[in-house]
Amino acid sequence: MTTVFTRAAIVAGVIPPIARRFVAGETPAAVLERARRLDERGVGCICNRLGEHYERPGPAVEDRDAYRALLDDIAAAGLDARVSVKPSQLGLDAGESLFRENLAAVVERAAARGGFVWIDMEDHTTTDATLDAFEDSVAEYGGVGVCVQANLKRTPDDLERLAELPGKIRLVKGAYDEPTELAHQERERVDDAYRDCLDLAFERFEGGIAVGSHDPAMIEHAIERHEAHGTDFEIQMLMGVREDAQYELADEYDVDQYVPYGGRWLSYFYRRVAERRENLTFALRAVLGR
After folding, report:
1. Which member of 78, 110, 159, 271 has the greatest number of CB atoms within 10 A?
2. Where are the domains of the chain?
3. Is residue 93 flagged as an active site residue?
């Protein structure tokens, strides 16, 4: 299937139906339309232009400008949407100063448009640079959030540091293959670490917490912590994963859907399928209309 699927995509120049479960489309118009449809269901939209690990300034500058234009479009349309950027997408692999310059340009535009910027977290080699950039950005502009990963053993200390800042955090379990000495490996231990991080965040944070998880047990734990402490929180899930649950949760809580778009969709689609075999089944059923 992979060979035929890839060839078909190249020939057609569009995203095949099987991948559209997880990717909004290739253009800004496609992600804006997705945001409009989500708004009708009471769900917010986090727009992520696919791209990462640029080693030259050119692509990083291109994506920087694309995000700035998208923030303009979101504001003009009055949509409940924000953007999420990857450090390596904005040039971190080409130099930390380039990343800082590009991130500042995106956050500055968001501040001017009343928007919000999430900074994704990548593997452990980028953690310090990402948190440093977040700290400076939120101090100067506000309207910024950063992702932290519960599987990293350093994260409780990072949360203590971030608790003093006005921005938001998104807590995820972590999807990168990290060294054993730096990260918890067993699923049960990662789950325990996630709960511990939720406990700490709901006790200490005033800026807001995003629970980035599809795990019903973790979401229920977060709701319990919210009821105990009153801390503002939202639930974030990926496009194409447990969408019925997203709409149901949105009846009572703030829910945002992370929506990728852009031409670099193929590797992202393969990652979603590799994560869970059920994802491929869901995508196939969507194509077959069953």
Report:
1. 110
2. 1-23+265-290, 27-264
3. no
Instruction: For 181-211, write each residue's pLDDT tens digit.
Output: 999 999 999 999 999 999 999 999 988 999 9
Q: How far apart are CA 124 and CA 148, in angstroms?
A: 10
Rounded mean pLDDT of 84-103? 98
Q: In percent, how much of the chain has pLDDT > 90?
A: 79
Cβ–Cβ < 8 Å for 156, 200: yes
What the block records as the tokens of 123 is: 């593997």
Distance CA 287, CA 282 (A): 9
Q: pTM higher than 0.70 for the full model?
A: yes
The catalytic residue among 34, 64, 68, 120 is 120
Q: For residue 264, what pLDDT is reported?
A: 74
262: helix, strand or coil: coil
Check pLDDT > 70 for residue 266.
Answer: no
Q: Where are the alpha helices (DSSP H) in the chain?
A: 2-12, 28-40, 57-77, 96-113, 127-140, 155-162, 187-204, 216-229, 243-249, 266-275, 277-288
Whose CA is closest to 24, among 36, 40, 42, 10? 36
pLDDT on residue 176: 87
Which of 109, 170, 225, 272 is the catalytic position? 170
Residue 120 is a catalytic residue: yes
Residue 285 is encoded by which pair of tokens?
Answer: 């059923």
- Topology of the domain comprising 27-264: TIM Barrel (3.20.20)
Task: Return d(Cα 38, Cα 27) in angstroms, integer.
Answer: 17
